[in-house]
Amino acid sequence: MNKSNKGVAIEELKEKLETANFFYITDSSSLSVEKINNLRRICFNKGVEMKVVKNTLLRKAMESFGEERGYQGLFDALHGPTAIMFTETANVPAKIIKEFRKDDKRPIIKAAYIDTAIFMGDQSIEDLVNLKSKEQLIGEVITILQSPAKNVISALKSGGQTIAGLVKALEERAEQ
User: Fold this and answer.
1) Antiparallel, parallel or unpaired: β 22-27 and 82-87
2) How many other β-carbons are positioned within 10 Å of the β-carbon of residue 96?
3) Whose CA is closest to 43, among 77, 94, 112, 9?
4) By residue range, what is the domain housing residue 30?
5) Percent of the chain beyond pLDDT 90?
6) Looking at residue 133, what is its pLDDT?
7) Omega before residue 107 within 30° of 0, cis
8) Strand partners for 120
9) Quick one: CA dihedral 49, 50, 54, 60, positive or negative?
10) Residue 165 has what pLDDT?
């Protein structure tokens, strides 16, 4: 790879890193071509972009952001064969890897960058799989916010919808 190609590759990685809040640095070496193609197909179908990268080029792209993104913690993972997985949903690559490894020992997670948090090593796969998506968290917050309103409505209904019933329901609730 000549110098101009390296420059282009670094710029492409910088553009990806700029827009990516979630990415995984993995090692999928020793997988056959058939298995790698299968993994890429699964990633594509689930909205994950998988790309094999050179460690030095990825490091230079990360260094271009300075300390603002906190990529320095990922530098220790940049050795050996490296594939990077970009995603919109934080836990999808971990789920893909866990499912894929039922039949194989690879890919392994070297590191993951999840919205400024860094997960190092393959032992963090369960934590990554259990991360909740933005939509799941919003749903939980809405459920929590709706709970008090539902209690008042049920108290109104149980009191026969009279003022005396409401006062009685509120008294009973205060006693609890």
Assistant:
1) antiparallel
2) 22
3) 94
4) 3-131
5) 51
6) 73
7) yes
8) 111
9) positive
10) 66
Residue count of the chain: 176
Q: Mind listing the pLDDT tens digit for each residue in 145-175? A: 777 767 666 665 665 556 666 677 777 777 7
Contact 107, 28 (CB under 8 A): yes
**What gap in Å lies between CA 131 and CA 133, rounded to an integer?**
7
Q: Give the pLDDT confidence of 97-127 residue by residue, as tens digits.
A: 999 999 888 899 999 999 888 999 999 999 8
Same domain, 124 and 157: no
Q: What is the CATH number of the domain that holds 14?
A: 3.30.70.1730
User: From CA 133, how far away is CA 9, in angstroms rounded?
Assistant: 30
Angle at the Cα of 158 from the Cα atoms of 167 and 175, rounded to 5 degrees: 45
**What is this structure's pTM?**
0.75
How many CA atoms does the CB half-sphere of 32 hold within 13 Å?
Answer: 5
**114 shares its domain with 54:** yes
Q: Are 54 and 115 in a shared domain?
A: yes
The label of the residue with tokens 């320095």 reads: 72
Q: Structural domain tally of the chain?
A: 2
At 95, give phi and psi (nearest 5°): -65, -40
What pLDDT is recorded for position 66?
82
Helices (H) and strands (E) in the chain, counts: 7, 5
Tokens at 143, concatenated: 């459920």
Task: Examine the domain organization and report whether 157 and 139 are in the same domain.
Answer: yes
Mean model confidence pLDDT for the chain? 86
